[in-house]
Amino acid sequence: MIFFDWDDTLFPTTELFHRWKMPKSPGGSLPHLSSRHETALQKWRDALYAYLQQACSLSDHVTIVTASKPGWVQYCIDKFVPQIKPLFEAEGGPVIMYATEAVDKDTLSDLQSFNSRPVQHRKTFFTEEEFDSEQTMQKLSAMIGALAEAHFKRPGHYWQNLLSIGDMTYERDALHELAFRHCGQCSWSKTLLVPSEPALSEITLRLQFSRLMLPKYVHFDGNFAMDLQAAADPIITIAETLNMPKLKKTNISRHAWGRSVTPDDTASMSALEELKFSLSNLLTARRAREAGVLWLDDLDTDEREFESDGEPDED
What angle separates helix 128-153 from helix 169-178, to the nearest 10 degrees? Predict the structure, then answer.
């Protein structure tokens, strides 16, 4: 099961509504954009479509969990990226779940009281810690709803591979709770915390990079919790977490995580093609290994096949 946050994870909310001052009301048309802005917006649209398409090819249970008001995601899609509508309408396409609708106030109050924090009037006053707890519980309730829907579609199936990508700690903490409470100790919980308030060029490059990496995240055998907000170098963090040393050598711009200036388009495309080629080699090596064939290309050490004595087989 794959869970995505919406605002500033898939959709450039900060850029469009705070920096570009786009209208948030449903009625009316969008103001005229300069050719530079329109070009940048189209690159993001293409990247988002390809990213969601990749996610749906890896899982029949892709869910966008958002804390925004009901109808917000649909408004954003209608106004800014209508070409992704067919993905949501197709069987097995992404599902939108609003966290505020997933839990009623009484249940939320009970969940908060369970934390036993020393605040008397919880419904009218929240500390920062309690607000974070409320957001986490709402996200958790939405994820539980998605899990229940998945069980309904495939009764008796055991969901053990859970991935969440978002720009707030709420998604990460909620997924860990979901795995612990409802999926058992044998489940794998995988979380990526990405930088918040990205520029449009940042989120576009991040989606392009993550589209190539999604299969590696999904097929990784184990748990991980990558905080790419705090990481000194996100690429190194990802490479070390997934045991992919060659990833460190790729020329992917750290602009995807707000660590550098906007790169040249040609350089970005070249780096992405290099990464795509490298990942293709890794996939070929894995398939060869599974077929019992030794693969001696220049690959990551974790993809090499060795005999028990540590020496490559002569064949």
Answer: 50
